[in-house]
């Protein structure tokens, strides 16, 4: 299967304010960067999804929080796709890019678990991508008023695993070379 690594919404907004930082952010970034390194070694395209929302000062085009996180191992040849909803497929060029490059398996990482990641994972399945992977410990969220971030992550992983994605540790990628 031809794969693509899709990294959703890892943007500066999640690192600018100590109260809005992603849960376990240092480990998440380390694992995302390890997955990028793996992708480059294996000639897997890296696609960054960037949330853009004119009504949210943190994610408004050109604002400091809108920028992709400076600690990511991003290169000029990586594809960057902007989205304006929680679904990275909705009114973006993602589907056309995947089709043009004959991609049939998506590998996911990113934020926020219960919002853009969840919506895009489910949308990918609806678009016919039925053999996707989620990199364990390479996605995160913020605490909510109801649940702590680890609970949100655990809940979503239990729903997704072996339905919408297969959850695989970063170690499984590093040893698959």
From TrEMBL:
Does the entry feature the keyword RNA-binding, yes or no?
no
Q: Which domain of life is it from?
A: Bacteria
Q: Give the UniProt keywords, A-Z.
A: Hydrolase
Q: What is its EC number?
A: 3.-.-.-
Kindly give the Pfam families that the UniProt entry links to this protein. Isochorismatase (PF00857)
Kindly give the InterPro entries that the UniProt entry links to this protein.
Answer: Isochorismatase-like_dom, Isochorismatase-like_hydrls, Isochorismatase-like_sf
Q: Report whether Hydrolase shows up as a keyword of the record.
A: yes
Provide the GO MF annotations for this entry: hydrolase activity
Annotated Isochorismatase-like domain residues? 4-144
Q: Which family does it belong to?
A: Belongs to the isochorismatase family.
Q: What is this protein called?
A: Cysteine hydrolase family protein
> What is the scientific name of the source organism?
Lysinibacillus capsici
